[in-house]
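Budget justification, computational time. The allocation requested in the original proposal was used primarily to generate structure tokens for proteins on the priority list. As evidence of use, we reproduce two of the resulting records. The first is shown immediately below.
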Amino acid sequence: MDFDPNSGSGVKRTEAPRVETGSLVQHSLKGRYRLVRELGRGGFGVTYLATDEEVASRKVVVKVLAERRADDAWSLRKFQDEMQALARIDHPGVVAVVDFGYLPDGRPFLVMRYVPGKPLRELIPRGGMPLQRLAGIVRQTGCALTAAHDAGVCHRDLKPANIMVHMLTGGEEQVVLIDFGIASVRDLSSTSTSQNITGTWEYMAPEQFMGKSSPASDIYQLGVLAYELATGIVPFRSATPADLLRQKTGDVKVRPKDLRPDLPETAQGAILRALAPNPAERYPRARDLGDSLAAAVSGVPDGAAWNVNREILSTRTDSFAARGARTRTHARRQLLALATLGLLALAAAVFFRLGLSRLPAASSVAVLPFQDRIADSDMDYLSDGITESLTNDLARIGALRLSAYGSVQRYRGPAVDPLRAGRELRVDRVVRGSVSRMGDELRIEAELVDAHSGAHLWGHSYTTRMSSLPEALEQFSMEVTDQLRLSLSGPLKERLARQYAVGSEPYQYYLKALSALNKRTPEEFETAIKFFDQAIAKNSQYAPAHAGLAYTYAQWAMHASVFGGVAPKEMLEEARRAAQKALELDGTLAEAYTSLAYVQMQGDYQWALAEHTFQTAIALEKRADALEFYALELAALGRFDEGLVQIKRAEALDPETWAIRAAHATILYYARRYDESLAILRDYSQLGDVIAPNYWAQSMPQEALAAVLRIPETFTPHLRIPLLVSAYARAGEKQRARTLLMEYRMTPENAAWYYLALAHLSLGDRAEALSDLERDYQRRSAEILFVAVDPMMDGLRAEARFRALIARMKLN
């Protein structure tokens, strides 16, 4: 390629055939580096394990710019920056670049030292890492970062997936920083750089959200890493960058000692100092954080014993890094100069010729229901299952706002306009597709549409047999994520791999169970339990099936009074067993934490423990249902303002689901904001059990009676009849109410005792009402949770039996 700096666009380029990245394996680059196998694909390039045939067939890693980014000036510049960054740094804790070159089509590649071992992401256990190991890793990482900063390089994307850990001779661990793909390279006289907003949201420093980065930003990211190594989770999680920034500009809400009691106070102080919102309040150097944390864990004065070993640890190296310093420095200078000239020319040529800009990552997306073109009732579950599977995968990406599964259900059918759907759902992009069958094979077609312009951004079809369905859906999920230009974290990649590695038969049962669960009827709850059980029978280690089973039982326990026919206490115990098993197999499943928290609340009245478990679920994944249940717990405790904050967050994620709207109205009722509650319920006339108490509290008995009469007859009589008794009695028809109550037949197992208490109260039978409430306490219904804040119970608050009940439920 020739570049003429004196011409307008200045480019004369000889086009070469594009080399398909997937076909590179077994090729030899520069006649020297033989590619052995692909190691992974990232946002900018593809990495390969290779051998250097000129140096004793040593292993090296080759990174090639991705085909789809070959004509993107921004991507070429970032590839150049990575080369410059690695060429500047001479430290054993930073992966070394040893060569570079170009493919026949002009795409650049880097050759880097091979680092054996595992990504740090794979080594973080649930609950955190042993403290001595934590301190050693943070300390080595801090030394490597300081070397980079001294060379004028900011990493800007420090996270466990970008740190390798391998064993040295003698059994000691060596930490090596990798992936400087978005690093910034500055003049040594400058203190900060202004860059595009780039990085991984959960780890970024507050100032990075404004496009500014400096060594202090890397120190902040090291603080996030230290918090995660100590506790097993990151300190900040949110579905939106704006909410993350809001969190990061304030104090850390959940301190590491809250999750890790054995963490020394001084170690917590070191981590929190690194997480200071103001860069000036953080450590001056990354290695200072490592030294402080190591000293705190070991109980020695900061900077004492650690200074003795600093040079030994910081200069530890393998055979390649031990080569002569002068030879290596000379080679690096040559490499840096050649890399800068070559890639600057290539980037400039592409920029002037094409003027391309990088398509930004999606901040919001909706997965519309896939069309079912199979026309087989036995396969009805498949299109819904694929829709929900992809929705669940994307929901785990913290930086993405995703329309919840319930909110997209109205956009079914081939005639749906993606622009209208995107506009109404307020998202940037829309995924839609279809499922069909050709003989023994399934065909899954999908496309990604820009919701603003209607432009077709990507489309693909997948042909697979049912026996290979999980593998096809895993590929589908990964490709959609890539096309949205989103980065999958290490834990998410591992979670997806576990989810889809289960085998076809149990996975099909799992999809059938999800399809049934979403219908939310007693019959479909039974069907869902059957299919989850069958999935577990085929693979007892399938954690998502155990989590789904727990969630089904928890939902059934919540709605036991509405559906009738089940004992919530028994459902809660089944939910507990399934949730605990799911978390034993996979401690990252937010759905399992949500179910367990609900059991702790409704079954155990362990309010503080339930709140902590809800918060853990929400930190792992922004789930509308977890936020809904947490909001209801806060309302039961009388913390109405906090509850309203959480229910509004749930509504923002899933504005179309009536259950969340009903929960919002219920919280307002308990807060005695009756007009606001009724305003929400105006569109939900069938919810007479929520509407009527609002009217009773305002002395409007006729309106309450009308609301109760609108309750569908499909509702269980164990809810409808006690409410009718209450409505007639409060409307002045007490004889009719008593006759109806006398004719009512029920058994202790299926009685909705809380509603019977309302009926007895309306007739003036306070002793009977108190007995009903005590029975409901034993039954563990959902309604009894709110007995301390329900306005209908005001007439009982002076009763000793009522106060004793409140005490047993730990609500006083």
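The second record produced under the same allocation is shown here.
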Amino acid sequence: MSKLAVVGKDYQKTDAFDKITGAAKFCSDMTVPRMLHAKVLRSPYPHAIVTKIDASDALKLPGVKAVLTHDDVPKILYNRDYHTVWDTLERDNYILEKKARYVGDKIAAVAAEDLDTAEEALDLIDVRYQELPAVYDPVEAMQADAPKIHDEIMIGDRRVPVRNNVIRNTSLEVGDLEKGFSEADMVFEDRYATQRAQQVASEPHSVLVIPEANGRLTVWAGTQSIFGLRMKLAAALGMPESMIKCVRTHMGGSFGSYLDMNIYEPITALLAMKTRRPVKYVNTREEEFISTARHPAVSYIKTGVKRDGTLTARYLKTMMDGAAYAAHSAAASYCVGGWFLSMYKAPNMKYEGCVVYTNTFPCGAFRGFGHPQQNFPVESQMDMIAEELGIDPVEIRLKNHVGLGDDFYYQGVARHGPVCSCGVPELLEKGAKLIGWQEKRLRKREISPTKRYGIGVARGFHTSGAGDKRYGGDTYEYASSIVKFNEDGAANVITAGADTGCGEWQVWCQIAAETLEIPFEKVIMSSMSGITTDEAPHDLGTHATRGTYAIGMGVKAAAEDAKKRILEVAAGILEGKAEDLEAKDGKVYPKKSPDRGLTYAEIAREAINLGYGPIIGTSAIRPSSAPPAFGVKFVELEVDLDTGKVNLLNVVAGHDCGRVVYPAGAECQLGGGVQQGLGFALTEDLVIDEETGATVNGNLRDYKILRTTDMPPVQLFFVEALEPTGPFGAKGIGEAPINDMASAVANAIYHATGMRFKELPITPERILRALGRI
């Protein structure tokens, strides 16, 4: 492993001073002169048609400046998904609706001088509804007599009828599935279900729209992609993208919840255009809970295996709840297929996916994006197979995992390529040693008459970005950056990439410093809160675990271009040739005469004085692969048979993200994924009342995320399987840490109790019910 000066070391976080001093600009905190406040009137019914709406009394209320209804918005169907090509998207919603499709759907909007007045005005809008039958279960929604949630949608320029509430079907078969099952000595078949879970980012969604004198809109928003927001906002409003300037802000977390345009950005923009005043909207926490969530899924899994543990056939059929509007639903199902096909090797495999409309609030991207929904059935069944065959669960995973040189599917079933770096064997072997796997598997399970001990393992992965060797396709992948030298030798990094609170800006500065061979302290992340779509080069933003890998590649390429430029300018100053010069340690000198060197500062200054112009490097790249970043989880726990409570004792979590660029940040990502994954396994479940369609526990009091005091000891470790296509050998880490955590918990609970739970979360009530105690 080559010696690096900056990459792989910890430094003071790039945005630390801004956050500590309060200088960091979060959109929810922002105020500007003459700013109005927006609120949205939401449907109390899960399925209903607005037959009458009268806003006259609301408009008479002092302080109310505008009211919008469906009659006041462009009649343009849109989809809020940022990263999918427009012509392939299911477009099915308006800025405001005449037909409500879930409790909380957007019916009208108000802009007023203050929040209290805006909220009072909502109560004065007279709306009459014709209630319609509703359906909340995707299986029921597909029945012939189920209520029709959408009659038709738009895909490209085509109007497409919706049949049986199905948004999209996805399938792919490799080999001959029937032949594979016929060759198996044993066949395992099961049904699993995962729940609706919310991202629970610290900062609620917000937006501030400022109408400019020239007709443009300036949009401040917490978003993972300022260019994605600009694209979808322009489409929904029916205006040119150049008339919208989106501004990057600091973000109080995301976990995928900011990876699409939510309902409030176009509503707030229209209110600003109508009033010609700045308008701000901020979600309440209750509104946040119905803004987006992870897609619930039901999966049917079937696996054929030889007695020696060799897999002959694998099949997964997943039905996802697409909720009231498509958003990311079709993409999520599409990705599930790629994740499933890339977990374990078999000559014969098939995936079938279906996404279905229901009368529930929209779902979107959530850390792992379809991965936890397939990992739970796959890793649970892998444990069942190991037990039946008498093979150690670690060994059967080592035998069958997709690894170095194997064909791997990227984000979806259409893109694939070879695995070029793989730390799976080392992850499993080191993790097993750290937790004492061999000894503890033999440990007596009965701790006391009412307590049982269990230990479990699971593995997973996530791709680093959404690259593809093919041009075209249905997903964007593009990275670009600018690196600019100052006259004192410091360098600015300019990119549209967002920092979701996880240290992405730090990573890019370290990559730039390493490439330029200058101290980390001499790299500046430009306009951490304030870079806009006007001056930053186009980038897709921070999603799909592409921050370190794809955006990092763009930053590295721009820094290399700046370094090339500084050599060219130095050659002119020194009256030589660029190829005869060497740039190292912030200095350029002739290879044969190092005593004649010039510092970067001297070159940058002279470049201006002598007319060479500023030293600027640029990049515009299209990553052609999306390498897997692998992970593993081992967990120890106790189950109380009297209460059903699971007491977490110990977690060992490992990750292969290639070269670790920013160790402290990587540890936070891995540890955070453990905590989120444990919540997904044991407590988190956003419940819909099937009589009213309302969210039962949409608040931080009733929705149970794990606190720090709920966490067991967690031991983290990293395996650096260097990725040849990544910047300095780096891959991603963002999403993978959550994907296999629930599976490891479920396997440990089975080891403790002998009961196989096939539905998440595994709550005390479900455990007691399985024990026959309730």
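A brief technical remark on that second record: The chain has three domains: 27-132+199-289, 297-468+625-770, 479-539+547-621.
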